[in-house]
Structure formats: C-alpha cells, structure tokens
Recover the amino acids of this structure.
C-alpha cells in the first residue's frame, strides 16, 4: 500500500525546496487556466503535495501562475517550474495543512485499486468550480463541506463528520445517501440521476 514519505532533496536539485515529498504516478483529469485566462483540459501524470506534472496542450511560460481544478482533489494553484514535451511541471502553492490534506487525497487515489474501492464511473465526473457547499441531514443539522468531485449520480465530499453509510443527506437541493467513507470524507449517491442543470450552481 502506498504512503507518502518525506524525502531529502539534494542541494544540487534544480526544483525548489518546497518539494519535500516524492511524486507518485496517478491518472487524474481536470482543467486548468493559464495567466492568459485560456482554459485547457489536462491530466495529472504524477504528483506530490509539493508539485504536479501535467500533460496538457496548453503551453505556459516558466514562472507563469496557473490555476487547476482536478477531479477528486479540487482547486490548486502554483507556478510553472519547467516544460516537457507534452506538458509542464508546476509547484503547488499551499499551506502545510493543505499539503497534509493533499498527501491524504493522493494516498487514497494511489491505493484505490489495491483497496478494492469501486470506481463509481457510471457518469462522467465533473470538476466543480464552486467547491463550497453544505450537507443537511434528515434532522435538520447542517455541515459545511467541500465538493471534491461531482457527477450526475453522486459526489465525493470533503467533510469532518462521517454520517453512517446509508444515511439520507441533502447536498444543496439534491437528495441522496452516504455510500462510502474515505480518508477525507464521504461519497454520496443521489437518489436519482440529476439533470446537468441541477449542478450549475457548482460548475
């Protein structure tokens, strides 16, 4: 099973010192926006809590600021470190707490197949632009949460509480139930397939 371990970067390394974790190969889709405001689909080739390598047709300049919205992970921003034949490497601007959360998310993604977690890919995942949301339980209690990824049939939610599997919940105006727990929160399956228009407040 994969887990992130800090590594010591040699003094001759050209990548800045914030890279204190080794990168792990993952296949995560998303989209990114360059400093020119142009948007492009992208795929993460490998990633650590400190930097991320993208495959992307967009060609930013070294030193350019980039914002990315990634499935399962959410919004990241950083600075381009160098270019490759089919993409680029970007440092990740984040607090220590954010890096800890990224390490947990990446560990979960890297171990998904080994842990036997279902892909739940009946509908394409959508990367939410507005990730802040609120979950409401049947008794009226409300909890702030962050949408990690979203589809017409469900969502992965970053939340501090862990309602029992099977618990009815409402995400915005969409009703569903908790179907899985994972490191950062819970997976919710909607009671019915949602029309894309129902998700517009998050996209």
């Amino acid at each position: 099973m994969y887990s992130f371990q800090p590594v010591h970067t040699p003094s001759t390394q050209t990548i800045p010192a914030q890279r204190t974790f080794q990168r792990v190969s993952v296949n995560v889709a998303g989209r990114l926006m360059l400093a020119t405001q142009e948007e492009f689909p992208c795929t993460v080739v490998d990633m650590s809590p400190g930097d991320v390598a993208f495959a992307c047709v967009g060609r930013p300049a070294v030193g350019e600021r980039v914002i990315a919205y990634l499935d399962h992970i959410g919004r990241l921003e950083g600075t381009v470190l160098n270019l490759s034949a089919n993409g680029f490497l970007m440092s990740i601007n984040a607090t220590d707490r954010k890096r800890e959360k990224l390490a947990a998310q990446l560990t979960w993604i890297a171990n998904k197949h080994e842990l036997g977690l279902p892909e739940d890919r009946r509908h394409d995942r959508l990367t939410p632009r507005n990730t802040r949301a609120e979950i409401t339980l049947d008794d009226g209690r409300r909890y702030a949460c962050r949408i990690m990824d979203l589809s017409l049939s469900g969502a992965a939610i970053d939340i501090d509480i862990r309602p029992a599997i099977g618990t009815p919940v409402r995400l915005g105006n969409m009703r569903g139930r908790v179907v899985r727990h994972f490191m950062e929160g819970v997976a919710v399956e909607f009671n019915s397939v949602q029309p894309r228009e129902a998700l517009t407040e998050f996209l």
